[in-house]
Amino acid sequence: MKYKNRRVKSRGNFRPQEVSCAYCKTPVVIYHKGGNGGLIKMQLHRIIEAEVDVGVLESTITCPKCGKILAKLGVYNGKPAYWIVRGQVNTRWLKNYKL
Ligand SMILES: [Zn+2]
Fold first, then answer.
1. How many domains does the chain have?
2. Residue 12 C-alpha to ligand 1 middle, in angstroms?
3. Which chain residues have CB less than 5 Å from ligand 1, an ion?
4. 98, part of any domain
């Protein structure tokens, strides 16, 4: 993907998840997910790769292919984070992903 976050480290429970557009199925983000619940938000330091430059803090993450808004910039624990727009993304665990 275009944007890569070199600071993400593989630790004990490293569990990358692919986040793709629910409409056109394009993978947009690889995310270092904690816990087993559904994906609610994406903290910036846990975004491993993205098809958009999340380093510039756009107000939304938009699907590069079909233009749907997938997530909106907000705040989590006092830091900027992207909150998933409900129903706009599909997720799947990546079993053989290497950093
Ligand atoms: Zn799309």
1. 1
2. 32
3. 21, 23-24, 26, 63, 65-66
4. no
